[in-house]
Amino acid sequence: MTSIPNTPSVLFVCVKNGGKSQMAAALMRLHAGDRIEVHSAGTRPGSAVNALAADSVAELGANMSGQTPRSIDPDLLRRVDRVIVLGDEAQVEPVEGMSGTIEVWRTDEPSQRGIEGLERMRLVRDDIDDRVRELLNDLLDPRPSVLFVCVHNAGRSQMAAGYLTHLSRGRVEVRSAGSQPADQINPVAVRAMAEEGIDITAASPKVLTPDAVRSSDVVITMGCGDACPFFPGVRYEDWELADPAGQGIDAVRPIRDDIKRRVTALVAELLETETTK
User: Fold this and answer.
1) Is-contact 12 25, C-beta < 8 A?
2) Of 92, 229, 238, 272, which residue is the least packed, with the fewest Cβ within 10 Å?
3) Catalytic residue selected from 80, 228, 263, 267
4) Catalytically annotated residue among 23, 53, 212, 224
5) Strand ranges across the sheet with 173-178
6) Biggest alpha carbon distance in the chain?
């Protein structure tokens, strides 16, 4: 497939490039049309596509005819936006200059429940189809994505997320998480943000996951950078900020103001980048 400028791109990978990765590629072509540049490859490609896999996706209107297993092209791996590895058997290592992210889909395996043949393949297909639809929505969302991370996800990261949501007015996807999330948000942080006219009472501490990091364009850590997994294509920053835990409002206000200054600069940078794409 010829690369189309500004079109999101995805490479689906499994071991033989005869079944799951070909199914995922066919389903993405079905749902996305020409909105996504779609590729598939194998770490040890076989000689032909799986006939049952082809039959199962054909029931949904997807087409695997004319597809042949192929090996991974390093240049393609280097330039695609997303690399999706289906299953744990295939291993894909980042290459120098790679701009995209690598994600592993641990898909349903009905054979472990004694289900074989076309019935098995339909269940595998449906699992992959759900994931492909979700990926499509993610790829077509033009907004940059930012993840704020601190230890407890109760103070600094929540204030930063509150500011970014408010200042970007929905033009940035905003999330926050903690390496050791607390039971609730710091009430002093809530009060400090309320003074700014920003309500963060509906937020709750969430645990940091590799998927949250992987799906972010920018990850900003605040005292817990070592807990953050590294993925190619993700930009990482560490903001040195005092911890508001156990502090009174007079001590939290300067922390809040420092966060506001940093987030204001981040918004300007992200939205300027988006307008020049």
Assistant:
1) yes
2) 272
3) 228
4) 224
5) 173-178, 145-150, 218-222, 235-238
6) 69
Its pTM stands at 0.61
Q: Quick check: is 14 catalytic?
A: no
**Per annotation, catalytic residue among 62, 147, 150, 172:** 150
Determine the Cα–Cα distance for residues 165 and 219; give it in Å rounded to an integer.
Answer: 15
Residue environment code for 20-43, b if the CB has 16+ CB neighbours within 10 A, otherwise e: bbbbbbbbbbbbbeeebbbbbbbb
Measured in degrees and rounded to the nearest 5, phi and psi for residue 162 equal -60, -45
What percentage of the chain carries pLDDT values higher than 90? Answer: 76
Q: pLDDT tens digit string along 258-269?
A: 999 999 999 999
SS3 of 131, please? helix
Amino acid occupying residue 85: V
Between strands 101-105 and 82-86, the pairing is parallel
